[in-house]
Each structure stands twice: as structure tokens, then as C-alpha cells.
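User: quick one
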Amino acid sequence: AQKVTQAQTEISVVEKEDVTLDCVYETRDTTYYLFWYKQPPSGELVFLIRRNSFDEQNEISGRYSWNFQKSTSSFNFTITASQVVDSAVYFCALSGNTNAGKSTFGDGTTLTVKP
Amino acid sequence: EAGVTQFPSHSVIEKGQTVTLRCDPISGHDNLYWYRRVMGKEIKFLLHFVKESKQDESGMPNNRFLAERTGGTYSTLKVQPAELEDSGVYFCASSQEIIGTSPDTQYFGPGTRLTVL
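Assistant: Done. Structure below.
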């Protein structure tokens, strides 16, 4: 069975602060993929990143960065110098090789960035 | 290129009524998925189509839910009769192909918010 845990239900920060959203996963699959999605107030889920289990290199995309650590089964997401437009619900998801078509999601973390 | 579209965006119905949700995937995507988010909890998998065939429907909650994808293009999800616990946001996603056991990125639609009164 697969499980994704996003322990932080809600986070509130002030603009320009850095914020890290935690994601811890469980899977028995030897090969798996991890994803982050953003759900802004408009409702759609926006794909942010996909990372496979063999690639533990951290990734940076502008103000966004991701830290994948297999040893702790974590795939954390950091927003540097947060902005009001970053306010959204963020979901971490996992898809394993035994059922590649099925993604398991966490409960989501609601991030509020105040001006 | 158009993304995944879903119709309607909102639906309010009474318990016992029937509702049909529609999803149009990204053109050329063979894989289509339905998920739902109930009561602000996690987004849960319902089922997966590959073209017109149901690849995995292990997440369908019960036989009041019927999904179809005739012709391998758009898909419908019918709830009949609707119950109060069916309220939530129903998301559709699509992806190009699954190569071996490697999942392709799923692109999501805006969701349909269903309220059953």
C-alpha cells in the first residue's frame, strides 16, 4: 500500500519569508515517482514537478526548490521569498511502478502568504 | 494546446437525483483518470481508462458510480442515485502514455464541485 503524509494542514507566512512544505511517503515499490501540484483559488491542479526514485538530486526552479531524501522518505518543497500569488493548496503525490496509472495524494497543505 | 476540461464546474442536486460529469482530456492522451476530493481530505483515485478500456477501477466507491469513455475520447462519470456523502470535488486528469511501469505526468482539469443536498 502507498501512503503520502503532509503533516502541515495550514501554513501562514508573511510575504518574502521562506517556507517549506513537508511531504513524507510510504511505498513498497522499488521504482516510484513523486509529484507536487498547486491548487490556486481558481481550483485547477497545476503540475509543478515530477521526480523519479533514482534521482535524488535536488531541483531548483526559480523561487521553488525540492529536496528529495530517500533515506527519510521525504520530498519537501521550499518556496523562497514567498509572494501573495503563492497562496494555494499544495499537494504531494506518489505513483509506483506496480500500478503506474494510480497516484496517491496527501491531504494537501494550505499556504497563505500575507502581504 | 487546450488543457483538460470538465463540465459542469459546479452542480447542486438533491439526494436521490442523478448527475453526469464530463471530462475532455488533452488531445492525444490515451490515459484518462478520475479522482475526487471529499471534505477537504486527500485526493482519492477512482479509476483509470486507457483509451476506451477501464484499466483500473479499484477506487470506485460503489455501484452507484458509472464511468464511461466511449470512443476513447471524452469520459463521463454518472452518479445514480446521488447520496449526501458523494459531495466533493471530482477531478479528471489525462496523460500521454505509460511506458512499461513508468507513470507519465498526469495533467488535471479544474474539477467539478458536486453538492448533494
